[in-house]
Design brief:
Elements: E1 2-3, E2 7-8, E3 11-17, H1 20-25, H2 31-41, E4 47-53, E5 60-65, H3 68-73, H4 87-94, E6 100-104, H5 106-117, E7 129-135, H6 143-153, E8 163-167, E9 170-174, E10 179-183, H7 184-187, E11 208-211, E12 220-224, H8 227-238, E13 242-246, H9 254-277
Parallel strand pairs: 4-6, 6-7, 7-11
Antiparallel strand pairs: 1-2, 3-12, 3-13, 4-5, 8-9, 9-10, 11-12
Length: 288
């Protein structure tokens, strides 16, 4: 199927992990963590390249996870730039992994697919990637941008924050005894510049794309895009690792996600056209 705004996909669901332990540490429904643990424990992969919170200051760290505990330690989102693609080389060449899962943003999914097609500088790496899992992304932030959102708008020291997540058009900042909210429109001023020319909200080049938009709180929206991704999700569901429901049975459903996905494409095209008129170099007009 091809959904306007979503790219090509085979099916779409809303799902969550059946494990209370995973859901307790996960960002939303814990679907990505559950899929990775399932794949590792069933011999589908022998490791995964992930991003984690690496300090109390919420710096993003890049990890080659080879155990269930290491995967769980990377659960949750860090809304900060994380140059994790380079860790694929370490996973293959230093850790000698033969089947690797990679979890990244839409722009990183594009980079990985390019590496698989044209492996200059990454020979014998792309063919070791078993699963490419993409995370929905509207905007991402440099570290000081995150600080500006949390401290400047949210009024909370970054080091005190336990969790940052999206809901209802707002960033929700959680600490031990305090919660703050920052409208996404305000936070957008801190977004990295590349986000303004990126038209991909739902990681259209992944095997499986996962986010929260469209699903109920505590659940994930999942696009299955390839046969390989379909096999992974089907196996996890059959094994009782995931609880899966028809996305059409929940609210807000795909309508909201489509609205946001199309808005991102429109904004990217307008920005690209404007930069072309100014004689500036752009790279992402291949989408149009």
């Amino acid at each position: 199927m091809t959904g306007e705004g979503f790219g090509k996909y085979r099916s779409v669901f809303t799902a969550r992990s059946t494990s209370d332990k995973i859901r307790d540490v996960a960002q939303d429904g814990g679907a990505v963590t559950a899929l990775l643990c399932y794949a590792l424990e069933n011999g589908e992969i022998d490791g995964a390249v992930l991003t984690k919170r690496a300090s109390r200051n919420w710096h993003a760290g890049q990890v080659v996870a080879t155990t269930r505990e290491e995967i769980l330690d990377c659960a949750g989102s860090v809304y900060e730039l994380s140059p994790s693609v380079f860790q694929l080389k370490d996973a293959v060449r230093e850790n000698a992994l033969e089947n690797v899962a990679y979890v990244g943003l839409p722009c990183q999914a594009v980079a990985v697919r390019k590496m698989q097609l044209y492996p200059f500088g990454g020979r014998h790496v792309g063919d070791k990637i078993r699963y490419l899992i993409g995370i929905f992304c509207s905007e991402n932030f440099p570290h000081e941008g995150t600080r500006g959102i949390v401290e400047g708008y949210g009024g909370m020291p970054l080091e005190m924050m336990n969790r940052l997540h999206l809901g209802g058009g707002k960033f929700i900042i959680e600490a031990d005894n305090e919660t703050g909210e920052v409208p996404i429109k305000k936070a957008a001023r801190y977004a990295q510049d590349g986000d303004h020319v990126c038209p991909d909200l739902t990681a259209e080049y992944a095997d499986i794309s996962v986010g929260s938009i469209g699903s109920e709180p505590g659940w994930n929206t999942i696009f299955v895009r390839t046969r390989r991704g379909e096999k992974l999700l089907g196996g996890a569901q059959a094994d009782g690792v995931l609880e899966v429901k028809d996305i059409s049975t929940v609210k807000p459903g795909l309508g909201l996600l489509q609205k946001l996905a199309l808005a991102k494409k429109k904004m990217a095209k307008e920005t690209i056209d404007k930069r072309k008129q100014l004689g500036l170099f752009v790279t992402r007009d291949m989408y149009y």
